[in-house]
Model the fold of this input.
Amino acid sequence: MTSINDTTLTFRKMLPRFVKATTFAIAVSALAVAQSSAAPRTEPQPQVQLPEVHLDAIGLSPRPIEELTGTTIARHYALAWHDLALGFESDQADGLDEEFVGFARDRLMQRIDEQKQTGVHVRILDHGHHLRAVFYSMDGTAMQLADHVQLEIQTFDGNKLVDTQNSPHDYIVLMTPGADRWYVRDLQEVSAKPF
Amino acid sequence: MKNTPRCYFTLCKRVIGLALCFVLPGWASGAELHVPATVEAGRTVSIPVPGSGQATFYLVGPDVVVKRGVNLGSDLQIQSSDIRTAGFYRVIVCDSSSACSSATFEVKAAQPAHLSFFLHPSRVPVSFPDSIDATAFVFDQYYNLVLTPAAVDFRITPASGASFSRQVPTRNGVAWMRMGSTPHEGAVEVTAVSGKVEEARVIQQVAAEACEVRMKAVTSGKTVTLETDPVRDCSGNAVPDGTVVSFTKIDRAGKSTVDTPIKKDVARAQFSVEGPARVSVACGVVLGNEVDVNGKL
Done:
């Protein structure tokens, strides 16, 4: 009887912690799912939940970054990942033109096209980006950044989940300015290394 | 009833069940897949798939999604055309019982085959330090950024004078350098070279600010005609036509200024003068000589 009571007591102490931890994990996932399944963006919507992007531009060369540029880059990079996740999950490439150009856009378009053909789609749960600016050209026409991000990637064949990957990813990103924003021109995943 | 161990047990079961719903799909696995850690872009890959029977193979990469049936116990061929883009590729094999195995491999860029080369600005004054910036991005034949360090040779060929070069290693696929303009005006060709690939751009060097302005005056009655010597920069290059030269006259009538553009290296102006007058000339921030007309003012 004492033993049962002790077990019950231990359970009482442990359970709230476990529930709290689980709830937290689910909350993060739910938030991320909400991010990736938001409605297509025709105009900037204040309601859109963007992934977190922290930009570090300390020691950037050969040109230092202006504060406004840093803010714009972080925002448009977050929008780019939002659109990418949305495109991969819904098989809709319409939103990609907003934030991607050049090779990056073409490759993502092709990927979504092939997703449609095969019936495979991917859900990305984005846990936030640590972006570091590594090169900013003197004329201000190109910025290279290194991104470290924790992603949970779920691959579905139709409605069947065939693979889940929850791991850190590293990207080398090339962004170039347009009329009113910075576009992602190249997005290349690389093995983790100190840049 | 609310606080009984049974109630906790039921709640616990639900929580664990919920957690398993999230975790189990990732655990469901068949035989282990052995994939190469890295592959060069555009190469064929062969992956042994253990087991027997039929399975579904998926390949998910940066710009590719493949799905097809495969026979277990044979080698899985991934076509070179499917792995041209650098990045990470996920291989998933699901057998008939829906047990899935997965593995990831990295595709790295091939040898440098393209240079994306920017030279800035398009026009620059001569002998101006740190005024020219050259940036080269190195890509392979599939336009993947080549992240393996490579040397880029920037070869500079001025319109006159000896050619010279600077070698810069790439960092994350980018090489850049800054240099001053050379002393003589004219086209300067800058060529970026990496291995067998080269890309040329031309920059126009123009004369810098005038170094010295000298004028002479010819008086005819009440009219004085002024003409500068050919206006040149400190390196001896002719200052471009259209550059403004200012002539200023002071006489009994007061002070008046005429701005006139340089035409064929010289600037000309004409004044009416009332008695003795003093005329000065300037071009930009450079003051030239002064001339007294009809005696000293």
